[in-house]
Amino acid sequence: xxxxxxxxxxxxxxxxxxxxxxxxxxxxxxxxxxxxxxxxxxxxxxxxxxxxxxxxxxxxxxxxxxxxxxxxxxxxxxxxxxxxxxxxxxxxxxxxxxxxxxxxxxxxxxxxxxxxxxxxxxxxxxxxxxxxxxxxxxxxxxxxxxxxxxxxxxxxxxxxxxxxxxxxxxxxxxxxxxxxxxxxxxxxxxxxxxxxxxxxxxxxxxxxxxxxxxxxxxxxxxxxxxxxxxxxxxxxxxxxxxxxxxxxxxxxxxxxxx
Length: 258
Description:
Elements: H1 3-32, E1 35-40, E2 43-44, E3 48-49, H2 60-72, E4 75-80, H3 86-91, E5 97-98, H4 106-109, E6 112-114, E7 119-128, E8 144-148, H5 152-157, E9 164-168, H6 171-180, E10 185-189, H7 190-199, E11 205-217, E12 220-222, H8 226-241, H9 244-253
Parallel strand pairs: 1-4, 1-5, 8-9, 8-10
Antiparallel strand pairs: 2-3, 6-12, 7-10, 7-11
């Protein structure tokens, strides 16, 4: 075989190998596109949390997020991110969607796109059992209030006249501060406060007052990802039709969705 023919053969093999590598990369990218990266802050039971000794993230949001992803034909990759870091992570492209008990607000809607509401909530107050002075949000004026950083509870608490608002990275830290006597009350979403009082067996705390600011939770994607937003809404509708949403709701709240 001539040197010229040998050179052409080598070049041909090289080009063929490049083509095969390219095909392999295309397949990998296609597979990767089937994974939905979801961000959540894992100290928000019963919506998202991690039980002791269990590596898997659990909760109402986690079950619903996995069901939505499955309905769309995706697998899930769930990341634990601090609540105040969720929107920046979404905007940076580190995650595809937020599912973390996030209230749909006008301010947040300027930055991100929310799905249809999937849960209706509202703010409530937890105080020590022997507290007889705090019976409503009005009574929180001038008091020390514990909240979780980045939440609507924190936003509303800061509006209370002369309140000393202390922000914590997690709900558990806020409850611990109440138990230690460092604050007068905890302001948080009703289901979170109810879960804390019920599941923790805490006998020295109680719920007081009416529910404030009924609000709705939504799943969030970037504003430019309209295709994913449409898929999520369609999946939520289908889960409500086929009964899967009600099944998940009953599991975590012990009653049918309102």
